[in-house]
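Supplementary material to the annual report.
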Amino acid sequence: KNEVEQSPQNLTAQEGEFITINCSYSVGISALHWLQQHPGGGIVSLFMLSSGKKKHGRLIATINIQEKHSSLHITASHPRDSAVYICAVMEYGNKLVFGAGTILRVKS
Amino acid sequence: NAGVTQTPKFRVLKTGQSMTLLCAQDMNHEYMYWYRQDPGMGLRLIHYSVGEGTTAKGEVPDGYNVSRLKKQNFLLGLESAAPSQTSVYFCASSYAHRGAGELFFGEGSRLTVL
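Predicted assembly:
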C-alpha cells in the first residue's frame, strides 16, 4: 500500500463544475502539499497545509490531521485548470513522499 | 531571482556512460530533493538532503549518488547509466520552518539512456 493515496486517478468535468480531489496518507506528517503540473510543464506549489483550511482564488485546500485526509477543491472550474494535481506529504524526518497524481480535464 | 535551476535540461546517454545533474537554488534553502517521474508512476524520491554536507536515501536510490558540498547545490550522479534510468528528473527545495516550507521545483531534466 502506498503511503499517499489520491483519488480519483482521472477526472473529467464540464466547465463551471465544482471539483474535489482527495488525498489520504498513512504516516505521521508535519505538512501536506498540493502541487499542479501542466502537460509537459514544470511543477508549481499550490498550498502547504499543516492544519485547517486555505483558500487562494478558486482553489480551496483542507486537511484533517486526525483522519489523515486532505481535499483540494476547485470552484467554477475552467479548461485552464486542466492539469495533474499532486498531493505530497512531509514525513517526520523531512522525507517528502508524493501521491501518484490526479489527471484533471475540464471541458468547455 | 532564479529560484531552482536544473542543468542540463536534456541529455542522451549510452548505456554505461556516466553523468551528473546539477540542481542549484538561490533561496538559501536547507532542504533539497531529487525525484524521477515516470509515466503512470508519479514522482519517486531518489535522494534528499536536509542541509549542507548531509544526504539520505529515498525510495529508489540504487544506481544514483548525490553530494551536497555547498548549501546551494545538490548534485545527482549516474555512475553507469542504464536504460531503466530513462526518465524526467526533478529537483525541489524548501526552507526549514517548523519542519516544512513551501516547495520550489526546477523545470526538469529529461534523460534518455540508449
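The mean pLDDT of chain B is 91.
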